[in-house]
């Protein structure tokens, strides 16, 4: 197929690398000329330009801009593309995007690849970023089946695990496993930085190893993405943070009251439950 990608960063560039290696022709649009040049040099796209007119005549377009630009990008795309073009996005929230875009483009399918790194930009794009990871599509009652099938035909060979759900269900679920972890991991890093003894802080930095690497990774990622998660999924993020604060209070009380058996039981419960998520 001829595939368009708008927004050549970590996700857009990684999709381009994988789709090209499947034999598709990939045309990319990004704002900066330098990003377009790098995307071509890295082999993420066959051609790239800052002009959305490049998207005329493609079979499917992946909109991979920051969330705040997704709606305006699709509005600006519409004069350039044919009615048959299937448009999908990769935004980390779905309800507001699907609500805004479904009425303006019939062949729109909401999407969200559950994969990323702490880096951003075209330099961070990776081959095989999506392989083995969930990729959620959020078609509604009015989304044409043919549009969903075209996106799935492109994605299946990338060895993603395809899921369908309602946009609202998606936002509630990812608040737990993606957006809440960004906020708690950021709070963890920030709490460590509050250590007032500089020698202890320096020692902690030198001793940090695999445990800190795992627990701080998402809090040390792209700040713009974290703000978008909070801004566009505000009620679900706040709800999950409130429950998290309750759980933290509970554990704090167990420690204060030296209820070691109850703490042990709590940690056994979480140890057993973790594997259900991964
Ligand atoms: P990123 O690395 O910062 O890439 C975004 C790219 O979009 C930038 O390189 C920028 O390129 C380009 N861009 C910005 N505004 C644009 C516009 N108006 N028109 C065209 N290009 C524009 O961000 P990302 O991590 O790939 O995230 C992109 C999307 O993927 C977001 O919607 C995010 O929610 C979603 N997502 C991210 C992750 C993750 O872990 N990172 C995971 C799943 C989904 P220029 O240099 O040309 O400005």
Please give the structural blueprint.
Elements: E1 2-6, H1 10-21, E2 25-29, H2 33-41, E3 47-49, E4 60-63, H3 70-77, E5 86-89, H4 95-101, E6 108-109, E7 111-113, E8 134-137, H5 145-155, E9 161-164, H6 167-193, H7 198-207, H8 210-216, H9 223-232, H10 234-256, H11 260-277
Parallel strand pairs: 1-2, 1-4, 2-3, 4-5, 5-6, 8-9
Antiparallel strand pairs: 7-8
The protein binds NADP nicotinamide-adenine-dinucleotide phosphate.
NADP nicotinamide-adenine-dinucleotide phosphate binds next to α1, β7 and α9.
Walkthrough of the structure:
The protein has 278 residues and is of the alpha/beta class. 51% of the residues lie in helices and 12% in strands. The protein has 11 helices and 9 strands. It has a 6-stranded parallel beta sheet with strand order 3-2-1-4-5-6, sandwiched between helices. Strands 7-8-9 form a 3-stranded mixed beta sheet, with helices on one face. Strand 4 (60-63), helix 3 and strand 5 form a beta-alpha-beta unit. Helix 6 (167-193) packs across helix 10 and helix 9 (223-232) packs across helix 10 (234-256). The protein is globular and about 65 Å long. The chain starts with a strand and ends with a helix. NADP nicotinamide-adenine-dinucleotide phosphate is lined by residues 6-12, 29-32, 35, 64-67, 69, 73, 90-92, 112-113, 116, 120-122, 222, 225, 228.
